[in-house]
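My main concern about presentation is that the manuscript never shows what a single data entry looks like. The format is easy to grasp once an entry is in front of the reader. For illustration, here is how one protein appears when written out as sequence plus structure tokens:
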Amino acid sequence: FVEKPDSQTAEKYLEDGQHLWNSGIFMFKATAYIEALKSHAPAIVSSCEKALFNASKDHDFIRLDKEHFSSCPADSIDYAVMEKTSNAAVVELDAGWSDLGSWSSLWEMQAHDANENAFHGDVVLQNVQRSLVHAEHRLVAAVGVEDVIIIETKDAVLVAAKDKVQQIKSIVNTIKKDNRHEHLKHREVYRPWGSYDSIDTGSRYQVKRITVNPGARLSTQMHFHRAEHWIVVSGTAKVTCGEKTFMLTENQSTFIPVGEVHALENPGKVALELIEVQSGGYLGEDDIVRFEDAYGRCLESAEV
């Protein structure tokens, strides 16, 4: 078993006709895999066991211990086990398999137009050939290009030559090296109670679209540096602001002053949707003092 052999080695394998192409499908008992890891990559087992042993739990979600899990070697099963084990067998398979492991392979599998383009979403193409254009949230227009991949999401836009798309890993490494945040934070963030989408940000304001699941409740909290306006778009909100608790429905709003203890709950049977406008000198997620949390999260943790 050789993972990603260089071109010279790969050509030799093809010429002698005695090798099979690894499709990346592995079958084993969990116990067998753990034993193999203990033999060939014990550091991975140790990190994972410690991360699980020190994990916390809120409802049905397990939060692995960050420190121990971060210490786990970033090694795939191919390098960590398969290249080293003698306890493996290979079975030949002819099933037209594709794991869609890259954007170029996704282009190959999709239906094509007359110019061999595959596209999704609000897309306008002129004189474009053999390309994949994927638009999730806005119009994407392309003119006069060939063999390119264009992917638009809430977080970022990727433009790459179709035969160079695997080099996206180098972009991620550059983002990390430059101490950027895109590989860590997303515009839409999921929480045990629902999710929020940071739809606009300025020097002293931030606008979020918040979705609270039926029966769910955000932690009781306060902020030192920001005030908040809540505008209900749909559903029913139960709001606690200081000593007051009251209900808000569609098109109603409220104001949470700086330093006021507050909480938000969805007592209804349908999702609560609201717009939150934050204003203040500091809008970071770590400006949260949590007093009570229904999901067992650490009160010092900086997340809503």
